[in-house]
Amino acid sequence: MAKLLHKCLTKATTAEGDQMKRGLNWIFSRRAILKIFDDHLECGDWHIDYENITDAVLYSIRQMVFIPGYILKVETEGKTYHFGLNWGNYWRGDLPFPAHREKAKIKHSLFSATLRIVLAAYIAYLLFQWFSNRIEHNQNEENAHSLLSERYAEVIPHRS
Predict the structure, then answer these.
(1) Strand order in the sheet with 53-63
(2) Which residue from 33, 31, 35, 32 is spatially nearest to 6, judged by alpha carbons?
(3) How far from the centroid of its chain's Cα atoms is residue 77's Cα?
(4) Looking at the DSSP assignment, which residues form a beta bridge with residue 86?
(5) Which residues pair with 34 in a beta bridge?
(6) Where are the beta strands (DSSP E) in the chain?
(7) What does the alpha-carbon distance between residue 33 and residue 109 come to, in Å, rounded to a whole number?
(8) Comparing C-alpha atoms, which of 76, 78, 80 is closest to residue 52?
(9) Which tens digit of pLDDT belongs to each residue from 95-147?
(10) Contacts of residue 49, Cβ cutoff 8 Å, sequence gap at least 6
(11) What is the CA radius of gyration of the chain?
(12) Does the global pTM surpass 0.70?
């Protein structure tokens, strides 16, 4: 019986190509618990025996400049798996399967960059609307105050 060594939350994908960037594949990735046993990895219904791993790389990354994390890339004959991992002491130690370590930077895909620009523009639009409404509201209050002052002056004569 296999011995459970560690388990953690992960976002995982089997998308091909460079997964060291933010994009749709990570938005729709599998959210599960990654279980590291002494002879295999499990993530949901994925079962990866260590003897079937042809290459493994543990990338050390930073999210939003200061949040550390990891991406574990595991290659087998048929698939390449990518596991997004939170920072933890477990990943600093020896792993039960052969893996080399690299530092990496997360890039933005065209989709991710476009989405961020659209979101920033929308927030700027909302702020503009809010400030415009505040200015208009203040002008309306001033106009109402002036009108009331004029009418008040007409009704009640000024005493000398």
Answers:
(1) 46-49, 40-43, 30-37, 4-13, 80-86, 67-76, 53-63, 100-103
(2) 35
(3) 30
(4) 69
(5) 8, 43
(6) 4-13, 21-22, 30-37, 40-43, 46-49, 53-63, 67-76, 80-86, 100-103, 107-108
(7) 26
(8) 76
(9) 999 999 998 777 666 666 677 788 888 898 888 888 787 777 777 777 766 76
(10) 39, 40
(11) 29
(12) no
What tokens appear for 117 in the block? 């620009």
DSSP-derived 3-state class of residue 64: coil
pLDDT digit string, tens, across residues 34-78:
999 999 999 999 999 999 999 999 998 887 667 888 989 999 998
Residue pair 79/14 in contact by the 8 Å Cβ criterion = yes
Q: How many residues does the chain have?
A: 160
**Structure tokens that stand for 150 in this block:** 């004029």
Question: Structure tokens of 93?
Answer: 């130690």
Q: Which position has the higher pLDDT, 28 or 82?
A: 82
3-state secondary structure at position 126: helix
